[in-house]
Amino acid sequence: MSFPVFLLLIFLFKSDLSKSEADTRSTIISALEKATFFLANKYMDINLDAVSGFSVLQAHLKGALEKWASEHELQSQQARVERLVKKLSSLIEKATHSLGQSDPKYFKEFEPSLAPNFWMLPHSWNQTDSSLAYTMFDSIGCFTEEMSDKCFTYLLGTWKDNGTSCIVTKACRNIMTKFGCSDYSLSHQLFYFMVADMKGCSDRLFLRAQYYKNIFCASMMKINLMIESNGFRFSSRDLFMENIMFCGMSGFSDFYKPSWLETVLTWQKPEEGCFGKPSENSEHPSRVKDQEQLLRRVKRREKVFADGCSSHNTAVAVGVLGGFLYYY
């Protein structure tokens, strides 16, 4: 093969790749526009988790715009994302105000996580090491949600009025570093170290943050692969997406698998724009039990609407899709 022909083939390959990436970005942006439509209709009724999820999305969109600043061929996509950011800013502000009135105590405890510049995004990428994953998982939850929430308020400084932030109690140190945890206990352990990063906490524990993140995300990858091999049962989808969102934000790029993106996109309700309970004609009747199981496992303030839209499901989904867009 002559050298010019070889160069031509490389050019054509890169062109096809760029077109494929552009199509993928457009598909993600379209899904996020629909999800923002859901937020516009429900901002007075969604819970704090949902507002946090859309705040994570906003951070990813701003991050994507910064990375795309010099890419002239992305101008039309940039314009769409800029409109999304502007719309989200207004809607998040309205939703935050509504939350302060409807659930003031919980809102006050987690208000810092809704600040515009709270969320940090990765600027370098790692891959998980499967050899670090737990060989066995604790079959019972490692700690309650109340215990987890208390530990987060100590980091955020919201455990009392004008409280000191970045406090690490012995109890929190023990539960947040316990090995073998699974499901939401595991993802909350990772989130604990993420929040410490975002707050700039300097406790000795956080000097080993990357060590714990490597172990947690290797184990979360193992869980996600099990969920995939089991056919993405509805009761596992929320956890599956939460694992992608948190480990993706922790810089583990192997969570951004194209096949997982395609799968998550199929879970969006096309008219409502949200994520949640599948319509009965698209799912097997036995999955109704999955819905009941999910509601027992996710946040106690979970809100499922009459149309099947789930606040928590939608929150983690938009966080995942924003992460994919930022990564691409």
From TrEMBL:
Q: Which UniProt keywords apply?
A: Signal
Q: Which GO terms describe its cellular component?
A: cytosol; membrane
Signal peptide start-end: 1-22
Q: In the UniProt record, does the keyword Phosphoprotein occur?
A: no
Q: Which InterPro entries match?
A: DUF4735
Q: Does the keyword Nucleotidyltransferase apply?
A: no
Matching entries from Pfam families are given as: DUF4735 (PF15882)
| Protein name as catalogued | Chromosome 16 open reading frame 89
